[in-house]
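Internal tracking record. Fields below are filled automatically when a chain is submitted to the structure queue. Please do not edit lines marked as system-generated. If the sequence contains nonstandard residues, flag them in the REMARKS field before resubmitting.
Queue: standard
Priority: normal
Entity type: single polypeptide chain
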Amino acid sequence: MPYYIGDVIKDANKLTARTPEKFREGGIEVMQNNRVERVDTDAQEVLLEDGAKIPYDILALGTGTTAMRAGIPGEDMDGVFVLKHLGDALNIKRYLKDNKCQKAIVVGAGFIGMEVCEAFATLGMETSVVHRGQYPANRWDPELSGFILEEIRKNQVTFHTNMQIIAIEKGPQHPLRLHTNQGPLDGDLILLALGVKPDVALAKGMGLAIGQSGAVAVNYSQQTSIPNIYAAGDCCEAYHRVSRRWVNIPLGDIANKQGRVAGSVIGGKPMIFPGIVGAQSFRIFHLEAAATGINEKEALGVGYCPVSDITWGNATAASMPGPKKLGLKLIADRVTGRLLGAQAVGEKGAVGRINTLSAALWTGMRLDEIGYLDLAYAPPFSGSWDIIHIAAQKLLRKM
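SYSTEM-GENERATED OUTPUT FOLLOWS
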């Protein structure tokens, strides 16, 4: 959706995976704009807001997430948005056009905040990011996040650090004024990109078990604590193969796979969802950022003895021209030598390296094995010793 707002994707219809008409062609009835008020699990009925009751034998939940709000005065004013649904993107784009916006404020520096600040800046708007911390993309090591911060500022986006928001009101020269602990900021539009949380209101009303992550607890076949009710996607948990815990990581690829597993099981073909390793990525201007696995704090929390190191190098052979700076962080268990996580930021090649290391995490590889992986080599893509090899062997020496 940020790429639609920034005019990279110009046709909103391309953001719809399947229309209601396509669903109906497959025998699936789609009921739009009709809220589920509650589910009677004893009677096995879904009660809609219009009073209708739909009986079920098997029920599947895909309630997703809700966008987090700041809880400050004025956050419901015209021109203040969150970006969670396609309708939000359509409304933002319409507002930008109708109001000829020139100045935007993004509150939050996670994935959505980064992608939307790029979209606003690309549209030629004066863009500011308000962040309560020191660096963007908190999941990444500060040294790597610092590289991201340089890229943001290099592209004329103002990044405010350690800033707390207090209230929103009408501005004297622009439609909106954001009050913060460091003074006011004025803008034509404010986007609250504060993250999301699992939408479990309906699940709680049904008496379903909720996991420690705050999402619906499921087994490996997406079955909830009530046997004929399943859950898939952002509203439920997934098993993390590295931390060995049930977690909630709201990403579209995970949701898609869980939905397929649930559908297969409901359709009579047993199947399990094998879990995740937490791979994720985003782009910010000319940088790729990607991560997988767990960080040092998470590793300590689940009983590992983590050791880590950051390697700076090239995405291509050093003799090749063009952008190539790449930073790669590896986290491993000092006792077993097993890889636990990886983070990368670079002008090129970050996502590809993290995808490779995600596969290594999936199979439980050790650093000594990763240090001699047979990777495809050609100067436009890497040196004869890839940065993955170099980082793994460097961390091994540190252990």
